């Protein structure tokens, strides 16, 4: 007995039956209707999204006996022969098995000849990226100037491997992965035509397992029909795929909401008894938090079954909780290979989720002897309880006034430290770094301005420095004098010449900046004279 697989039996025969790919369908229908179809088309995309199907629909559209049309009749001899794979002018080539340049040259030798049966001679090359470099070179001239009766249709899952010279001569259409909803809807339609009973949950589970490929989904559907004895139920599909039951996931999520680690551990044990792959369980764990987050923000995005299952949990977690739990689960999937085994990785994911919940008192995180009390809401746990009304406001005792802080003393003040405390900026900072304390008295501070910054020491700069010092020492009557020593022929002041080499070294702006930057202190007696260095008083 001969059985035709669902993927072949229900292969789309025209553009209206094509699942998804509306962007490609619209462009091709318009091109065929206007007679502006490009002679070389490249279809790229993952497996089972309709690349070869589109190529055969185009072949029907070009060779239908009713004429070139976007809606081939499907009844004429040309349409039927193309569907059955015996149309002489549709040359299908598997590039994976014919990679040699000799095969390509043999193919191109027949290009100039007119079609034997139809209106166009169509060359359909599947997995075209498998051709050799020399084969691509042999195609270049023909692709650039093809005969009017020839149509090239290329299909590939890896367009990046095609030479840029080939891509530039083709019109490329990238086919998207088919959504879960579209795959499930197509399955539902096919099962209705086949008079087979099916549960929506089982179909959606198959659609998710198809991973964007309609052909894979229909192959799984064939398997599910055989496994379920002529019908498709969620239980049979779950057993066939080795998936976790939704009620087990919901029980685990409820235990997390109650912060009942004992019940959560029992749920993990129950999952392990079913012999499930914990990598797949962790994937469903991620999807659970994602659907809960979607249900909170966009309730209408959940179908009726999801609303019934997830509804009781939606109010038990805050939006922030769900975001954290989802991130924990996603990171656990990424790091699962580093765990000792998949079960250990999943167990730590659940325990980490419990650890991130707000504490519920001293026994939070531990199962009480009599069972954990239900937890109304994780978000509510973080809210403080409403305070009882105050009967009478007690008169607050007067607080003692804080003790006055003594004003800084002028005795032994360090100028470099003082500059840092005053927080000067701009030209005032430059002048302050070029000053040194020349004298200190009870009510007077004398600053000596170095010759290098005397030009910047204007009256306004002096006023800013004077006011800052008075405010710092809390002495409005403090007298601040600025002295400008005379310069010698060498550019140094007389006082500078009289200073020791150690004092000159400490007065350098670069040294002061280093002291301020590293909060350093100069150790007494740490200076050493270097006799070999230029100058009489070189210091290290």
Automatic annotation (TrEMBL):
It comes from Oceanococcus atlanticus. Residues 390-409 are annotated as: Disordered. GO terms for biological process: DNA-templated DNA replication. Residues 37-179 form the AAA+ ATPase domain. It holds the Pfam family DNA_pol3_gamma3. This is DNA polymerase III subunit gamma/tau. Signal peptide: none annotated. DNA polymerase III contains a core (composed of alpha, epsilon and theta chains) that associates with a tau subunit. This core dimerizes to form the POLIII' complex. PolIII' associates with the gamma complex (composed of gamma, delta, delta', psi and chi chains) and with the beta chain to form the complete DNA polymerase III complex. Keywords: ATP-binding, DNA replication, DNA-directed DNA polymerase, Metal-binding, Nucleotide-binding, Nucleotidyltransferase, Transferase, Zinc. It is an enzyme of class 2 (transferase). One of its GO terms (molecular function) is DNA binding. The keyword Cell membrane does not apply. It comes from the Bacteria. The lineage of its organism: Bacteria, Pseudomonadati, Pseudomonadota, Gammaproteobacteria, Chromatiales. It catalyses: DNA(n) + a 2'-deoxyribonucleoside 5'-triphosphate = DNA(n+1) + diphosphate. DNA polymerase III is a complex, multichain enzyme responsible for most of the replicative synthesis in bacteria. This DNA polymerase also exhibits 3' to 5' exonuclease activity. Its EC number is 2.7.7.7. The gene is dnaX. The keyword Membrane does not apply. One of its GO terms (cellular component) is DNA polymerase III complex. Belongs to the DnaX/STICHEL family.
